[in-house]
Amino acid sequence: MKHRKWIYVQKPQEYGAKCDKCGGPNIEWSEWERMIWRYDCQVDTEGRESIFDGPIPVMATELLGMSLARLYFKDNTIRYPHLRKHKTIYTKVKPDYMAEYKLREKNEHI
Ligand SMILES: [Zn+2]
Questions:
Q1: Each residue of 100-109: pLDDT tens digit?
Q2: Residue 58 Cα, ligand 1 centroid: separation in angstroms?
Q3: What is the per-residue pLDDT for 71?
Q4: How is the beta sheet containing 77-84 ordered, strand by strand?
Q5: Staple partner for 10: which of 14, 43, 54, 96, CB 3.0–4.6 Å?
Q6: 40-78 pLDDT, tens digit each
Q7: Is residue 70 a contact partner of residue 79, using CB atoms and an 8 Å limit?
Q8: Percent above pLDDT 70 for the chain
Q9: DSSP SS3 for 62
Q10: What DSSP element (H or E) covers 6?
């Protein structure tokens, strides 16, 4: 297991994650990558039922009021996801999702 270099700014519960042992919501991001910490069970786990179980529609999550912004530990910055040629990159500047969406729509219809 590797130590995390970042965490999402929102709590795992806000993405629908639950403890996969007791089903409880009393969880936090683990110090380990891809894991959550379960307070009730006192153990790190992969969790279940979160949006990360499937492909993540970046713009859709933002429009639903859910943020995929990350807090990076090395420089204590918050970075936001952008779509670039079907890849997600993270920058310190918050994207304008509607402008990005319109641009994509326009480009896809050429
Ligand atoms: Zn539990």
A1: 778 777 877 6
A2: 28
A3: 96
A4: 6-8, 70-72, 77-84, 87-91
A5: 14
A6: 999 998 877 677 767 767 777 777 778 889 999 999 999
A7: yes
A8: 95
A9: helix
A10: strand 6-8
CA of 33 to the centre of ligand 1 (A): 18
Token couple for 16: 């629908």
Q: Which DSSP string do the residues of 40-56 spell out, in sequence order?
A: TTTEEE--BSSGGGS--
**31-36 contacts at long range (C-beta below 8 A, 24 or more positions apart):** 31/3, 31/4, 32/1, 32/2, 32/3, 32/4, 33/1, 33/2, 33/3, 33/4, 33/5, 35/1, 36/12
User: Checking DSSP bridges between strand 27-29 and strand 36-38, what pairing results, if any?
Assistant: antiparallel
Sorted by sequence, the CB contacts under 8 Å of residue 98 that are 6+ apart come out as none
Distance 22 CA to ligand 1 centre (A): 4
Three-class SS string for 81-97?
Answer: EEEECCEEEEECCCCCH
Neighbours of ion ligand 1 (CB under 5 A): 19, 21-22, 24, 38, 40-41
